[in-house]
Design goal:
about 260 residues; 11 strands
């Protein structure tokens, strides 16, 4: 996807591109999904597919994948990513839609379905999060696996989330040919169990004024008990709640919770 100019780029398209700059440091989750595809087979469903980081990689390795997202700009980047790697027709299907009411082709036939990398936390309430798990479970074939991955901030994290602005990184965006400086602030609201995130991206290149774009998200925190309750409510049999992508034991201080549940049948 190299060589795409930023001139005339919409804010939505720019923020989708900058999301990929954020993930230049690999989260490390792809190998987990590769292993689960090898175990389960396909088709595969990703709710909250975003720019296709996982879905395109799995499809490029032979899986048949359906991805759902409500962000049209993210889906456009996923289509471009698929075109760059030369995916054959039918290997990846992208659907603009809501995680909570996923209307996808071949619903009820998926061997593996997942909501990756905190996407569940973008839903505004626990009712919405529970609905997304039910939607995911309903799309699975009997015996299919559901995976949900969420961040677990600890008490020290939450204390620091007081609105202070912090420089997170300065890095190159090779696609746009710009230098990106990202600053961010987080504010924890204990009353609502949410974290309000503000990200400020300043992009520069020689001879061009600095362009600034701002993204705001509200994350609804999810505990391991919440995850298990959502899975139970969706009719899933919980196989494991792990503390990371290697499925290591969940312990006090684990930064992530990865739940794997099975649809009975």
């Amino acid at each position: 996807m190299a060589g795409v100019p930023t001139t005339g780029e919409s804010d939505a398209a720019a923020l989708a591109r900058l999301y990929d700059v954020d993930l230049a440091d690999d989260p490390g989750d792809l190998d987990l999904y590769r292993a689960l595809v090898a175990r389960c087979g396909d088709p595969v469903l990703e709710l909250g597919v975003g720019s296709g980081r996982l879905a395109v990689a799995l499809a490029a390795e032979g899986a048949t994948v359906v991805g759902v997202d409500r962000d049209a700009a993210m889906l456009e980047r996923a289509r471009r990513r698929a075109a760059v790697v030369g995916l054959p027709p039918g290997r990846l299907t992208l659907v603009e839609g809501d995680l909570r009411t996923a209307d996808v082709p071949s619903s009820g036939s998926f061997r593996l379905g997942f909501i990756a990398l905190n996407s569940l936390m973008l839903l505004p309430s626990r009712l919405d999060q529970a609905a997304a798990l039910r939607s995911l479970a309903d799309c699975l074939a009997p015996g299919g696996l559901a995976v949900v991955d969420v961040w677990l901030p600890d008490a020290e994290d939450l204390v620091r989330f007081d609105g202070r602005l912090v420089l997170e990184y300065v890095r190159q965006d090779p696609e746009a040919g710009t230098l990106v400086a990202k600053s961010a602030s987080a504010r924890h609201d204990a009353a609502t169990g949410t974290v309000e995130l503000t990200a400020i991206y300043d992009e520069s290149r020689d001879g061009v004024p600095v362009a600034r774009r701002v993204r705001r998200d509200r994350l609804r925190l999810v505990s391991t008990d919440d995850l298990v309750a959502f899975a139970d409510g969706a009719g899933l049999e919980v196989e494991v709640v792990a503390g990371g992508y290697d499925l290591e034991r969940l312990e006090s201080g684990s930064e992530r919770a990865v739940l794997i549940g099975r649809r009975p049948g």
